[in-house]
Amino acid sequence: MSEAAESGDAPAGREIWIEKYRPQTFDDVYGQDDIVERLRSYIERDDLPHLLFAGPAGVGKTTSATAIARAIYGDDWRGNFLELNASDERGIDVVRDRIKNFARSSFGGHDYRVIFLDEADSLTNDAQSALRRTMEQFSDNTRFILSCNYSSKIIDPIQSRCAVFRFSPLGDDAIAEQVRDIAAAEDIEVTEDGLDALVYAAGGDMRRAINSLQAAATTGEVVDEEAVYMITSTARPEDIEEMVRAAIDGEFTAARKQLETLIVDTGMAGGDIIDQLHRSVWEFDLDERDAVRLMERIGEADYRISEGANEQVQLEALLASLALSQN
Asked: Is it true that domain 237-324 has CATH number 1.20.272.10?
């Protein structure tokens, strides 16, 4: 079980659980065993290179960076670890000023300091070029850890200077294990179908699972499937499947009615419905031809919605396309 957050003076029951149960050491990190093992070996050999962490949200990138600092510096880690969020400070000035000032400042007792640049794929190309030069200039006394969702947005000269770690979405077992641990620590009863719903709604994102658990725990004494789906505005997988099957069977009116229920009654956004459709295509037991056709329509609707098209219109067009193909 993870330790409570260091600022433990918040009133009981009002702490943010994603911070309260944020892993403090490598031993507390769930679901990234291979990556943790490689990072441990760097620290044990005292041979830490620049690192690039790539992967979706809530899978342990920031946690792994702070765990490295704690392992190297112990109680002094805050003074030797600079965390910057590139999405807030995207220009070249942050690279030239804050990073250089930290890298130049004097320190004792350690061979190098660590600079953690979160959401580095938000940096402009000019800022990344400046960062590359800074990494070269201060390589003797500074190690950089860059975190991003998409490594393809990081320029090649930076990638070639880093050991790249690709974090995958967390497995269902890892999320279920931490949810059980937190529920036990908080004395919350979670039913098996509630646990399954939390894992499904999380989609590999541990932060989302913990936030959903905390929110669902405020609705009653027991966290069950109904509470989770209500709190997270997530559709039951069977509701999504019912809508798709109706469309594939040529019953557009029934499929459209189910879509309207999801948008109006459940409160789902069009993008969330697209995400659930994409995650569930291969769980619907469709024949391969229907699954491939559905994937093609999902991709087209997702692109149009991302470009600003009306969500409901695009989803209805998706269902209509599936229904027409049966006629």
From this structure: yes
- Of 65, 21, 54, residue with least CA distance to 182: 21
Dihedral angle over CA of 269, 273, 276, 278, nearest 10: -130
Amino acid letter, residue 77: W
- 3-state helix, strand, coil split of the chain in percent (to 5) is 60, 10, 30
Buried b (16+ CB within 10 A) or exposed e, 190-225: beeebbebbbbbbbbbbbbbbbbbbbbbeeeeebbb
Per-residue pLDDT at 44: 92
Per residue in 114-127, is it b (16+ CB within 10 Å) or e — as a string?
bbbbbbbbbbeeeb
Q: What fold, for 172-232?
A: Helicase, Ruva Protein; domain 3 (1.10.8)
Binding residues, as ranges, are 55-62
Task: State the pTM of this model.
Answer: 0.81
CATH of 32-166, one of 3.40.50.920, 3.40.720.10, 3.40.50.300, 3.30.70.3270: 3.40.50.300
pLDDT at res. 326: 62
List residues forming the annotated binding site for ATP: 55-62
Give me the pLDDT at residue 8, please: 41
How buried is residue 283: exposed, middle or buried, by Cβ count under 10 Å (0-12/13-18/19+)?
exposed
Rounded Cα distance between 327 and 310, Å, is 26
Residue 1 confidence (pLDDT): 43
Cβ-based neighbour number of residue 12 at 10 Å = 7
Q: What is the pLDDT, as a whole number, of residue 89?
A: 58
Ranges under pLDDT 70 in the chain:
1-14, 87-92, 94-95, 106-109, 326-327
Cβ distance 123 to 11 under 8 Å? no
Q: What is the CA radius of gyration of the chain?
A: 23
**Predicted pLDDT of residue 235:** 85
Write down the domain spans for the chain. 32-166, 172-232, 237-324
